[in-house]
Specification:
Structural class: alpha+beta
CATH topology of the largest domain: Butyryl-CoA Dehydrogenase, subunit A, domain 3
Strand content: 15-25%
Helix content: 40-55%
Shape: elongated
Number of strands: 10
Largest sheet: 8 strands, mixed
Length: 371
């Protein structure tokens, strides 16, 4: 299925809140949010291979890791948790506007004193009558303050649980603070919950299902957030190849110098290896197999590859790579952020080691396969 992303021009400077929201809506208008989702809720009823190919084309067209991050936070943070854990009423109410892009969503996990260690979460939910009261603070939340709603995780009766929280709910505040100097095509803000009142229908899944929901959401995000960035890296590679052919140094094209040609060869190898991992993750999802190990490997490799190739692109272009209008220096900042979101590179190494039966966190038999 073809999607027209021609209206999504590359980002060359700061964007307003309205511009960021308009760009997300432009992606939604192409139908790009509908892949790997059931037709009954507005999806295409296709698979993750189609999703991967579409996200890659999106990244190549917009060259905007921030927009890619916003789309992925929306899908893996809100759409898929509701699809996988919501009841029929919740799915019928929330999925169509999210899939159509009428609503912008995401999820809120990170807290001031809690990042990867979700069990250290201090946000609390208490029962009040047949509903709930939520208190707590979340930081570095993608799509805040623009989001219409979030899947927010808090401890209820001592167990991590998930709730759908709207920006208009009493006691809920989506704040433009703790912004990051990276991924300018999206916004990152904070959430403050001060006796936020929710009805019983806002609990997603069972009490205590939140830890499993977080794991599943992060697995999917790690597996596919770099599909769009692979498209960005495809553009990067074309720029350095063009420059290496046109720029003459010592009477010969720059690309004839081995130091340059080797960097370009390594950029190509990283990109193709990323694509192999992404295709494998899509295959695993389409076949209903276990994604945990492959998604951690994909996230680790892809985030490090994006950073190294971004540095190489600037190095090859020299001083020109530092000019704002090339867009290459901004990608270095975005790549630094890429090593952190969805779990840092160190977290992915810990997870891989634990799944292989070594390292901290190992609790069972080693996992060598995806099934």
């Amino acid at each position: 299925m073809s999607h027209d992303f021609s209206a999504l021009s590359p980002v060359t400077g700061p964007l307003s809140e309205e511009q960021i929201l308009d760009r997300f809506r432009a992606v939604a208008a192409t139908g790009a949010l509908r892949h790997a989702l059931p037709e009954c809720f507005g999806g295409y009823g296709d698979g993750f291979q189609s999703l991967y190919r579409t996200h890659r084309r999106l990244g190549e067209a917009c060259r905007d890791p921030g927009l890619v991050l916003a789309v992925n936070a929306h899908l893996w943070g809100a759409v898929f948790p509701i699809l996988l854990y919501g009841d029929e009423v919740q799915k019928e109410k929330y999925l169509p506007p999210l899939i159509e892009g009428q609503w912008l969503g995401g999820h809120a996990i990170t807290e001031p004193g809690c990042g990867s260690d979700v069990q250290a979460m201090t946000s609390l939910a208490e029962r009040q009558g047949d509903g709930f009261i939520l208190n707590g603070e979340k930081r570095y939340i993608t799509n805040v303050p623009l989001a219409d709603g979030l899947v927010i995780y808090a401890k209820l009766e001592g167990r991590i649980s998930a709730f759908w929280v709207s920006r208009v709910d009493e006691g809920c505040h989506f704040l433009r603070e703790r912004e990051l100097n990276a991924c300018r095509g999206s916004m990152t803000g904070s959430v403050r919950l001060e006796r936020c009142r929710l009805g019983p229908e806002r609990l997603l899944g069972k009490v205590g299902a939140g830890a499993q929901m977080i794991q599943k959401a992060l697995e999917l995000e790690r597996a596919f957030v770099f599909a769009g960035i692979a498209g960005v890296m495809e553009w990067q590679l074309r720029q350095v190849i063009r420059h290496s052919r046109e720029r003459v140094s010592g009477g010969t094209p720059l690309g004839r110098h081995q130091a340059i040609s080797h960097r370009i060869a390594e950029m190509k190898l990283r990109l193709d290896t990323m694509d192999l991992w992404l295709v494998e993750c899509a295959r695993i999802c389409d076949e209903g197999l276990r994604l945990t190990l492959a998604s951690a490997q994909t996230k680790l490799y892809a985030s490090e590859a994006f950073l190294q190739s971004s540095l190489d692109a600037v190095q090859i272009l020299g001083a020109a790579g530092l000019e704002d209008d090339t867009g290459l220096l901004g990608l270095v900042q975005d790549a630094l952020a890429g090593r952190l979101f969805s779990g840092s590179s160190e977290i992915q190494k810990n997870l891989i080691a634990a799944l292989l039966g070594t390292g901290e966190g190992y609790r069972g038999q080693p996992c060598f396969a995806s099934s």
